[in-house]
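TASK: fixed-backbone design
INPUT:
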């Protein structure tokens, strides 16, 4: 597409919005870079993209490599959402094959971001069921598995509600881990004839920062050292807050 027919400022802001959505949804740096480059090239522009842990800096260049757009956009924490990542990837492929107008691009992007998530109760049930199954795999009996289900449910409920209050995300992780292990510890404290220790450990597994740690390895392998190291540190802090929540429960119950 001839870049003279495109509003470069609007295109730049749409590209920044696209990249920020991917970053906030848990995409790796390389995937964001490839997607932005693919869309920019489809509209006849080159791009320079700087990706940091919480923001994107984008410069668009015309065919003569003269800068025609430069801006920075900060991201909010949305949480892992693979539907948004895969939807934007499909959108970028479609634009690459058949460039559309910026109005159509914006409408498609809005459609992707407005795809409804699973209902809260369904998510809470499935996450709790996963925690119970981890407990079962770890050798827990029927009672321990039931305890893990309830403890995971309590922690997930606290995590979801406190996250909506815009508290520090690390504090949210601590409170969720503390709640889960407090519930599991209460049963362990009273059901002395049953071994519910596997429930205590498995009730916090839903908090494990799998995506940040996986993305950190991808970034380090791809040469994005700064982002990789930041994501490693982020994952380690989350792990530390999980452990801190568990330790507080252990000290309270003298387990």
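OUTPUT:
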């Amino acid at each position: 597409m001839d870049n003279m027919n495109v509003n470069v400022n609007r295109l730049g802001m749409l590209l920044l919005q696209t990249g920020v959505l991917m970053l906030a949804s848990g995409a790796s740096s390389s995937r964001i870079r490839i997607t932005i480059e693919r869309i920019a090239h489809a509209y006849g522009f080159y791009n320079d993209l700087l990706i940091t842990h919480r923001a994107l800096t984008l410069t668009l260049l015309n065919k003569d490599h003269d800068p025609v757009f430069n801006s920075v956009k900060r991201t909010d924490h949305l949480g892992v959402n693979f539907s948004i990542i895969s939807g934007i990837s499909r959108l970028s492929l479609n634009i690459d094959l058949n460039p559309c107008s910026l109005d159509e691009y914006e409408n498609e992007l809005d459609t992707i971001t407005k795809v409804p998530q699973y209902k809260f109760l369904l998510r809470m049930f499935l996450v709790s069921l996963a925690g119970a199954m981890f407990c079962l795999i770890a050798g827990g009996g029927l009672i321990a598995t039931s305890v893990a289900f309830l403890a995971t449910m309590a922690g997930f409920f606290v995590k979801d509600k406190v996250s909506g209050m815009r508290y520090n995300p690390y504090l949210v992780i601590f409170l969720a881990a503390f709640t889960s292990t407090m519930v599991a510890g209460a049963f362990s404290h009273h059901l002395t004839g049953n071994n519910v220790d596997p429930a205590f450990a498995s009730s916090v597994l839903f908090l494990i920062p799998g995506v940040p740690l996986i993305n950190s390895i991808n970034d380090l392998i791809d040469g994005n050292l700064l982002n990789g190291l930041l994501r490693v540190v982020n994952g380690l802090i989350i792990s530390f807050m999980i452990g801190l929540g568990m330790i507080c429960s252990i000290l309270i119950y003298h387990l």
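COMMENT: The mean pLDDT is 89.
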